[in-house]
Amino acid sequence: MSDVSELTTLDSTAGDLREVVTSSGTLRYYDVGDGAPLLFLHGSGPGVTGWRNFRGILPAFATKFRCLILEFPGFGVSDDFGGHPMVTAQGVVAPFLDALGVQRVDIVGNSMGGGVGINTAIHHPDRVGRLVTIGGIGTNIFSPGPSEGIRLLQEFTEDPTRQRLVGWLNSMVFDQAIVTDELIEERWALATDPETLAAARRMYGRVAFAAMMEMMRTADVPMPWAQMHKVAAPTLLTWGRDDRVSPLDMALIPMRTIPNAELHVFPNCGHWAMIEAKAAFESAVLAFLTRA
User: What Pfam families has UniProt attached to this entry (predicted)?
Assistant: First the structure.
């Protein structure tokens, strides 16, 4: 692992949490394993963290890669930089890599993290080797938007109750046995933290969400899904066939427009492919990342 003078090891029950001062602000992250650097970027939603998204698959990847799990600002681990956390996330990857002295990485991005990975690959093509996305990119073609999972997320954000959190968590998976009491309690604790909840409302409150959609519709720039032809990195799109947050038809545009893209669909699987289809996900992604 890199010897970085700016980082400090912090007490953490989740693992070896570190922090580094970047040109964008202080960011926290995990640094596990040895080998070529592999950056994991988490999604959005109540109580999400990078560690919770990727801790289950970390052992399989840390044997071959130096795994860097970045915690985006405003999700309860790295400090809130203000503004819209999903917008802020787009600008922190390059400063993070600069601060660690890492020139080039492969990226695994879940949902929002996949969008950040796409954006990084477009604007910093020399920094991204291979790119893996897990649902969440593209746009609805046949399914209505916002999706069922996003509507449930909005309802929780507007009026956070345990029942609404459970409803949203159930929409994330095909097998609802994954939504254990332990998972619910873990997510509830962070999702209802006042600062984290305030950041979530800047993303998913009904007024804020509608304003963001209108801004994207009227802005004098292409929509994110309309720029995916600029991705030069070899890309593996992974998707749960039964995703109720980012339905499978969203994969059609990135699959067709990213020049060097392939698509792997996991059956009986929702939005968390790396959790619900763990063994198959590890097999497919490791094969892609280590392919000659």
Answer: Abhydrolase_1
